[in-house]
Amino acid sequence: MSISYSSTRGGETGLTASEAILQGLAKDGGLFVPDRIPALDHTLAELARMDYRELAYQVMKLFFDDFTEEELRGCIEKAYDEKFDTPEIAPLAYAEGAYYLELFHGATIAFKDMALSILPHLMTTSAKKNAISEEIVILTATSGDTGKAALAGFADVPGTRIMVFYPKGGVSRIQELQMVTQKGANTRVVAIHGNFDDAQTGVKKLFADRELERSMKERGFRFSSANSINIGRLVPQICYYVYAYATLLKEERIGEGDPVNIVVPTGNFGNILAAFYAKQMGLPVGKLICASNTNKVLFDFFRSGTYDRNREFVLTSSPSMDILISSNLERLIYRIGGNSPERCKELMALLSGDGKYEITEKEREGLSDFYGNFADEEETFAEIRRIYESCGYVIDTHTAVASAVYQKYLADTKDETPSIIASTASPFKFTRNVMKAMGEDVSAEDDFALVDRLSHLSGVAVPRAVKEIRNAAVLHDTECDVDGMKAVVEAFLV
User: Fold this and answer.
1) Which domains occur in the chain, in start order?
2) How far is CA 57 from CA 73, 115, 242, in A?
3) What is the DSSP string of 88-104?
4) Is the Cβ–Cβ distance between 302 and 278 less than 8 Å?
5) Backbone dihedral region for residue 24 (phi beyond 0: left; psi -120 to 50: alpha; all else: beta)
6) In sequence order, which residues have a C-beta less than 8 Å from that of residue 390 and are 6 or more positions away?
7) Can you tell me the distance from the alpha carbon of 197 to that of 355, in angstroms, rounded to the nearest whole number?
8) Can you tell me the distance from the alpha carbon of 250 to that of 372, in angstroms, rounded to the nearest whole number?
9) Which residues participate in catalysis according to the annotation?
């Protein structure tokens, strides 16, 4: 029986996977969700014998069932190729009692590569399947990593254009340089005067602007999104959690059916939602440990049942998590509310209006799979230093938030279940803060001198993604206020 996709807010129902991927965000502002979560149709032992590409096909085919085998395998082969610097695609490293799932071996050295390497191919294939003649325009807000990964994925892909908005001063220097040096005639990068939530809200308003949509259609364009609000971004993320379990089983670190915990540094909630979906598919997962930084809106939600974005926005050393509106949480809210679009729409209206909502006690029971906690800046830096000094393994600031929260989980629960920590970015992407945390003096050197020092201290070669931007020309220098986003989009689409 085929899987169909509907909006969490009820405005659209019965879409195929390719239709949902093309559209990105539902017209009513909701997110597309499958009408059911399919079960894995291979045993864990069978999955353990597969390489990453084969396993990814076996997972994605269950959700994207209107793609032919040839179409989907073609997308996977184009995505997971030599862009990744390791044949495993997502290897596991053991350090200090946990397994670090290294999701940063792609072209932009962050976990977003895992899904954004395949999304352009899923999207262009979907356009052909649905006889779409308009040029696809990707509008994306980024807190640092999605932007570069999306730009790299869509650069010079025929029939597409991409515009990325990022918060000026709200990303690391390496992250910014990765974006503003991006080549590709179909790419644009815009720094907005505001924070990530401002950028994300602005993009959502553009998607909801029916007048703009009509104007763009007349000129031969249609909008879509590369953010994790797109189901075509979310489903590929499920694959690496299944692969991590399969790897542990293959290496005889666990037995078939043994549970594992999964720890995820979380901002927009998409990455941990993918782990939740993996559990719903039948992957033996115990706790999903949601790690927040100082912007601990999710920790407060799991603790109190109230989601409240009315608080100070703090710029931290883990900028990809500096988020107060976790868009993908809406998919979980829809599920724990009994798959009720009316209830989901009610809560999202409260979030949009008052900036907060409260779920019922019964709905809170649906959060039992999750444990939430947070790590502040001091704890984040201390965790980087602790692991480096104990075993020489270097992690970035986002991974350190997850690792520090995992230590709190162990102290709270004494749970000895093997645990996988999502390592979401290379330490070379946040070199200054990583080196500072390691006890190094960083005051007198530029970012690239620090890159070389980090390579020497860690024994890890400087990633190609960093080498490429060392002397690259800045190609994008546009800035705008939040209320100017529509104008820069219209200027791009000429």
Assistant:
1) 92-109+236-460 (3.40.50.1100)
2) 6, 13, 12
3) TSS-EEEETTEEEEE--
4) no
5) left
6) 96
7) 12
8) 30
9) 112
Q: How many CB atoms lie within 10 A of CB 218?
A: 8
pLDDT digit string (tens) for 422-481?
999 999 999 999 999 999 999 878 889 999 999 999 999 999 999 999 999 999 999 999
CA distance 298 to 461: 35
pLDDT at 389: 97
Six-digit token pair at 207?
């998607």
User: What length does the chain have?
Assistant: 494
C-alpha distances (whole Å) from 367 to each of 32, 78, 284, 321 are: 20, 37, 17, 21
65: which 2 tokens? 């069932």
The dihedral formed by the CA atoms of 386, 390, 392 and 394, expressed in degrees to the nearest 10? -20
Rounded Cα gap, residues 350 and 175, in angstroms: 34
Q: What are 263's two structure tokens? A: 């720890």
Residue holding tokens 């720094």? 191
Torsion sign across C-alpha atoms 223, 225, 229, 230:
positive
Is residue 33 within 8 A of residue 328, CB to CB? The reply is no
What phi, psi does 87 have (nearest 5°)?
Answer: -65, -25
CB 101 within 8 A of CB 421: yes
